[in-house]
Amino acid sequence: MRVVSGIQPTGDLHLGNLLGAILRWVRMQDEAECLFFLADLHALTVDVDPAILRGNVREMAAALIASGIDPAKSTLFAQSAVPAHPELAWILQGTARMGWLNRMTQWKDKAGKNREGASVGLFTYPVLQAADVLVYKATHVPVGEDQKQHIELARDIAVKFNNDFDVELFVAPEPYIGGGTAARVMSLRDGASKMSKSDPSEASRIHLTDSDDVIAQKLRKAKTDPEPLPDDPELLAGRPEARNLVGIMAAVTGESPAAVLQRFSGQGFGAFKPALADATIALLAPLRERLIELRNDPAMLDGILAAGAEKAVELAAPTLHEAYRAVGLRS
Ligand code: AQP
């Protein structure tokens, strides 16, 4: 079992990233060979400030280590330090179909009505994402629900490439979603949209860097409804904000949503929100303290990323070489 996954260094790590993906990465470190990367090439698909991006790569590496990614167990690196990713992505652009990419809901959501003005990279980045995992022959890709469609695309690309060139080179990876964490954490301001780094409202998400007071305040102001909590998760249907907060409580405490509702059935959000704030702070405060310590040692962080990149370059080389050979180049 080989696990590969990445996160864009486009802003501070938030609770959605943590509950949807990172805490599962942490658990998988003891079960599988794991490679985790900062998807800094993906970050170029939207407008970037070079100075901020450079700092963000290190900051996100620190946030991952603070969250429990152990460089002694996992290979941690920046995507841009391993040229095999974009090289393979270019080869796979010949395999991916326009129609496949046109169906990607993230493309539709992120480009919005301004498709003509969107970067080409925003359209093709799922192909780079396919290369990110196929180049290591990843068997499992732990991601949030929002990325499931992209992993399915990577599977389609792997199968078509193998068929087109009559090789058994690529392994079709499995998306790995759920498993006790919240597969889809929604915005605190709108239960219909996902918690996201790019949401202009800071109040919509909880950052790993938020102080205890800010966490409590954001949860206190989170959008809810006036109804008391029911005793059965099924009864949260049609109450997206309530369902989201119950889901967050379950993920941060490790309970099931049903167990959370057993504790709070009949109570309103006036009672639930402070308890949710306490549970969230209990999870995040120690991670935040570690992050603050790690920030003081940039040389150590750079050393970890350099060692990770060296290992990743080695692991990726044979697959890239085989891909070139399959298409008739570099024999
Ligand atoms: N709201 C979420 N709930 C559950 N999982 C989530 N993930 C992101 N948001 C949620 C998962 O976190 C991992 C890293 O995400 P990413 O930064 O690489 O990509 P993203 O999905 O684009 O994240 P954001 O925060 O929404 O950033 P922007 O605003 O830049 O698009 C992935 O496994 C993702 O599924």
UniProtKB/TrEMBL annotation:
GO biological process terms held by the UniProt record: tryptophanyl-tRNA aminoacylation
Single annotated GO MF: ATP binding
Catalyzed reactions: tRNA(Trp) + L-tryptophan + ATP = L-tryptophyl-tRNA(Trp) + AMP + diphosphate + H(+)
The enzyme's E.C. designation: 6.1.1.2
UniProt motif ('KMSKS' region) ranges: 194-198
A cellular component term, taken from the record's GO annotations: cytosol
Sections of the chain in a coiled coil: none
Keyword Nucleotide-binding included in the entry's annotation: yes
Motif segment ('HIGH' region): 9-17
Enzyme class per UniProt: ligase
Signal peptide: none
UniProt keyword list: Aminoacyl-tRNA synthetase, ATP-binding, Cytoplasm, Ligase, Nucleotide-binding, Protein biosynthesis
Family to which the UniProt record says this protein belongs: Belongs to the class-I aminoacyl-tRNA synthetase family.
Assembly, per entry: Homodimer.
Name listed for the protein in its UniProt record: Tryptophan--tRNA ligase
Organism: Sphingomonas edaphi
Taxonomic lineage: Bacteria, Pseudomonadati, Pseudomonadota, Alphaproteobacteria, Sphingomonadales
